Amino acid sequence: MLKPSDFIPKNYSQTIEKGSFQWSAPSNIALVKYWGKMENQIPANPSISFTLKNCKTITKLTFSKIERSPNFSFDLLFEGKPKESFRPKIQNFLERVEVYLPFLKDYHFTIDTQNTFPHSSGIASSASGMAALAVNFMSLEKQLNPQMTAEYFNRKASFLARLGSGSACRSVKGKVVIWGNHEETENSSDLFGFEFAELHSNFENYQDTILLVDKGEKQVSSTVGHDLMNNHPFAENRFEQAHQNLSKIKNILKIGDVNEFVKLVESEALTLHAMMMTSMPYFILMKPNTLEIINKIWKFRELTSISVCFTLDAGANVHVLYPENVCEEVLQFIKNELVVHCQNEQYICDEIGSGTQLIIDN
Ligand code: PMV
């Protein structure tokens, strides 16, 4: 089993003066949720997610060699303009990954980033943002060490992204990604995510329409939420259940059982929020409109027998998941009945994607 020290490079065979890369990295939506963590972003339970296609961060990393400096040297741009408020998050990330990327203080970096989804839409940009940054740094490391394999590149990118934001490690590569030690999953690791490669064709191009119910700042950050799983009265049972649900969903995704998928995914979403409601202090991130939407989805499903379901992340927005072949009916239903519950009637049409993509390489 790989250890963190396996990601510390021994030496580099090349020297590189300057250059730039640009990568895009998508967001992801968990089916079995990660909620609760130990030190160093080690998850308390394993999780699995669909990688998204359209909601992504595009990050350009420009670098030039400098005399090794005692501090990290970097400029930060958001949509081409300086963004000082992002600095502490990036500084923190660089500190966490420095031991694994020992060249960091030998360069000045310009990090220019933008998202394809609206700012403060309630869609967390940390997963896509950290994954985009991690693959850029891995591109530089690959120039310093050209023998690096694609497998090592992706694993280490996921490993680094995890240190930035836990769920970011599921945004590097693959349509469906598993992260976290799981007895029944060979090669599973708490350190990085890896692709679940047995997806049945029923889940090909699965759709995710994200209904933006509340675009405001969350009252409770996911960092605080994870912490509240320490000493949570139901924590042990929940972690055990996540292990069982991962075994179940792997089989569901493999045999293409869309009906069982609906049950498990909705139960996971509500369990995540039940953990929030039963922690101390307790909190509720769902809004009245979240519940209106859930009830309407249940009614629509009963009436039409169309296998549409919802999931939630740590917020009020609703992800509506459904097979591609019922796209027309479901979108019509969303427009007719659900959009009224969205803030400014906003929603984003997304679907399963395959992970990070290199845009510029020089
Ligand atoms: O990666 P974080 O620390 O923002 O936590 C994400 C937690 C959930 O989105 C609620 C669940 C998950 O597995 O993505």
Give the structure's gist in a few sentences:
By secondary structure, this protein is an alpha+beta fold.
Name the CATH class of the largest domain: Alpha Beta
CA radius of gyration is 20 Å
DSSP summary, beta strand count: 14
CATH architecture descriptor of the largest domain: 2-Layer Sandwich
Overall 3D geometry?
globular
Strand percentage lies at 15-25%
> H/E element string?
EEEEEEHEHHEEEHHHHEEHEE
Kindly identify the CATH topology of the largest domain: Ribosomal Protein S5, domain 2
Distance between the termini: 34 Å
Domain module count: 2
Low-confidence stretches: none
In percent, how helical is the residue content? Answer: 25-40%
Helix/strand-derived class? alpha+beta
Present as ligands are:
(3R)-3-hydroxy-3-methyl-5-(phosphonooxy)pentanoic acid
Largest sheet: 8 strands, mixed
- How many helices? The count is 8
